[in-house]
Structure formats: C-alpha cells, structure tokens
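hiii so um. not sure if this is the right channel but i have a protein structure encoded as tokens and i wanna go backwards to a sequence. like what aa goes where. can anyone help
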C-alpha cells in the first residue's frame, strides 16, 4: 500500500520533498495557503532565481556559516551539479555566471516554479489550499496534520513552511510553532541576508543613492572579516542592496562585538593612481571652491557629505588645499565609513537564521529524533548560507532527503 505523506508548505523545499516522495511511490498531499506555489522562490535573485551554486562539496559547506557540517550528507548525495541535472531534466535551460551562480537561461524564476509544478502534477501530487494549524500526534509519532478546513491523515509529515522572513509570501513562522509544540527546540530567529541599520544619520542624508562598482568591507572589532565588490543602496535607515545583504550574513555577534563598514568608492584605482586623479581634477578646478570641484569624482548627492567628512572648508579654493588635506580626502574615498548598529527586522530579511535545532534532526534523513515520521526541510532547519544560490541548494538537498526518507518510512 502506498505511504501517505503530507507536506506542509509549497515553497522550494516543500515542492522538492513532494516530488521526491511521489517519485518514490508515495501518495503526496501538499498543504499551501497561498494561491501560488513557490511565492518566495519567484522573487529570489531579483526575479531571476539563483537556482543553485555549482561549486564542489567543500565550497558548498564553506558557504554555510551556521551548522554547515549538518548538511554534509545531504550535499554529498545532492550537490549543485545534481540540482542542475534535475532542473535541466525538467526542461529548464540553465547558465552559470560569476561565482558559480546558476540561473535559468531565460532569467525568469517562474520557469523554475512552473517546472516543479508540472513535475508534481505528472506525479499526481495533490495540492490543497489550506493552512496547517497543528500536527496530529499519537504515541510519539506524527499521524497527520490539522488544517483550517479539515484534518489530513498521513504516515509521515514533512514540515517545509519556510522561515519568518518576507511574511507577505506566507512565511509566518507556523512551522516553528508546530515543531515547538511537538517538543523541538527552536533556536533564536533573526534575519540573515538583511539590510543594516546605521548608528548615525549619514545614510539618511544619502537616501535613494545607489552606488555601483564599489568595494564594501566589513570590520568586526576593527578586524576586516569580509570584502566584496558590487552595488549597494543608501536608505532612510541605513544601507541595503546586494553587497550589504551578503555582508550581513558575516555579522553574527551583535551585542558582543562592534561592526562598521568601509566603502572603497574607487576600487579600480590604487592610492597612488587615485592621488594622481585628484591632482588632475584639482588642477582643472584650481580656482574653484572645494565644494564645486568634486563633480567629476562623485555623485552629486555625495558631495556635501564628503565635504563635511573631509573637514576641508566648502569654500576653500582648490589651489589652497594642502597635501595633508588631499591625503585625508583620498583616505575617505578609499575608506568611506559607516557605523552600523544592527540588523533590520527579520521581516526585511531574505532568509531566516535560526530554526529547529540540528542536534534534534537526523542529518541523513531529516527525520525528527523526537517525533517519529516527522521530517524537516529548508528554512525550518537551523542552517543558513551566504548569497550565491547556497540557500536554495539547502532547500533542494534537504527537501530531497526528507521526501525520499518519508516515502520509505515504516508508516
């Protein structure tokens, strides 16, 4: 007799779990309150969907700073190359970009979610628009799920409800509550890949300014811990954008350690080259006021801030600027400082850090060590990674492990 599996959550991990369980011969029901499956999946990678990362096993693990070792088994059996093979077998053409990031050739995330939906349909996975409210438990094992409309009995349940980031996509934290009610430990939930709050008000003055081709460095207690190149955005509260979201994942000791950022506004020029550029610009504007001599070097919105931070009087004539003053300006251009006070709320994050404690989950099968036939996948688990396709790879690998193991459980 076919095993009955209930998958709670129709996101990336849930759809993968459903496909792998159905492929293994189980009768699968997916509970998803959203009208669309993969709602969060469809907005990843700015709507392009960074499907996975085709790095090797060790590099995959190195990009999971929180409990990466837990994923060794899952990644060993399903890595980025396996994920690529899987999606290409579903008819999605893929391409590899900088940093081994994998995207659909079409640059459309809907192609990924649509391929998963087609495969689920072909495997006769039933999708029910209902919100799970609690697990049905008996004698230390799960027996199904209670929904808003009715009960859904099952021989096994996969919880794949996502984290608590992006609540508009349906990530309400219900899965964590259900896991806790079943006896699981939920480690503190906070945002990862999240905008940063500034300690002062410098960023608010630059609100709306987007910087491209800059280098951002993160300092933890004045020790540089991370550097990357790309684009970022100033906001009313601090900083955001791809560079900042990636940087935030490295800042994990708030309250114990102090953090600040430095922006290299001219990473293509070393200090000597930049000094020559400054001399050239100053020669061109030698009779101008200092505040009117930076237009070739900086976005207009940054000039008043740069003048203030440089402590060079705004109306000092350029030909009167001393070598020391020029040196100070050069340092600012290469090390523009932003003191950050913390992360934005978890609702603003791309992924959730924290979740079901990994010590309570079997790393080979994703089965609960507390409740028989209960499985976890994706953001439910206390693992999270840097940007670059690694978080979706966690969803695929844990979803596959959970779905296959659930289908083969003793029931």
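sure thing!! here u go:
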């Amino acid at each position: 007799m076919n095993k009955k599996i209930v998958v709670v959550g129709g996101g990336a991990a849930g759809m993968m779990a459903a496909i792998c369980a159905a492929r293994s011969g189980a009768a699968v029901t997916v509970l998803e309150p959203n009208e669309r499956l993969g709602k969060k999946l469809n907005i990843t990678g700015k709507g392009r969907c960074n499907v996975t990362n085709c790095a090797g096993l060790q590099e995959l693990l190195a990009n999971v700073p929180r409990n990466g070792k837990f994923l060794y088994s899952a990644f060993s059996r399903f890595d980025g190359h396996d994920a690529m093979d899987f999606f290409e077998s579903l008819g999605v053409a893929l391409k590899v970009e900088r940093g081994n990031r994998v995207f659909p050739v079409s640059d459309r995330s809907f192609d990924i979610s649509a391929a998963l939906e087609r495969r689920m349909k072909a495997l006769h996975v039933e999708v029910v628009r209902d919100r799970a409210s609690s697990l049905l438990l008996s004698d230390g094992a799960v027996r199904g799920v209670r929904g808003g409309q009715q009960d859904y009995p099952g021989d096994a349940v996969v919880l794949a409800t996502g984290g608590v980031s992006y609540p508009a996509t349906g990530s309400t934290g219900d899965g964590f509550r259900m896991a806790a009610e079943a006896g699981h430990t939920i480690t503190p939930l906070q945002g990862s890949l999240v905008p940063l709050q500034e300690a002062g008000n410098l960023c608010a003055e630059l609100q709306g300014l987007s910087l491209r081709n800059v280098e951002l460095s993160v300092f933890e207690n004045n020790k540089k811990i991370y550097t990357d190149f790309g684009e970022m955005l100033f906001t009313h509260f601090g900083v955001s954008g791809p560079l900042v979201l990636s940087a935030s994942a490295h800042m994990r000791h708030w309250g114990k350690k102090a953090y600040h950022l430095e922006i290299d506004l001219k990473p293509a020029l070393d200090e000597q080259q930049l000094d020559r550029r400054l001399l050239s610009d100053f020669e061109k504007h030698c009779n101008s006021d200092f505040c009117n001599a930076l237009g070739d070097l900086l976005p207009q919105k940054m000039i008043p801030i740069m003048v203030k931070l440089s402590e060079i009087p705004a109306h000092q004539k350029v030909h009167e600027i001393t070598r020391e003053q020029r040196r100070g300006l050069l340092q600012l251009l290469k090390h523009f400082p932003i003191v950050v006070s913390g992360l934005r709320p978890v609702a603003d994050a791309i992924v959730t850090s924290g979740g079901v404690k990994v010590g309570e989950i079997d790393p080979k099968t994703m089965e609960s060590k507390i409740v028989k036939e209960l499985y976890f996948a994706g953001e439910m688990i206390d693992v999270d990674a840097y940007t670059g396709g690694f978080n979706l790879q966690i969803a695929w690998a844990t979803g596959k492990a959970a779905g296959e193991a659930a289908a083969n459980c003793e029931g």
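oh and The mean pLDDT is 92.
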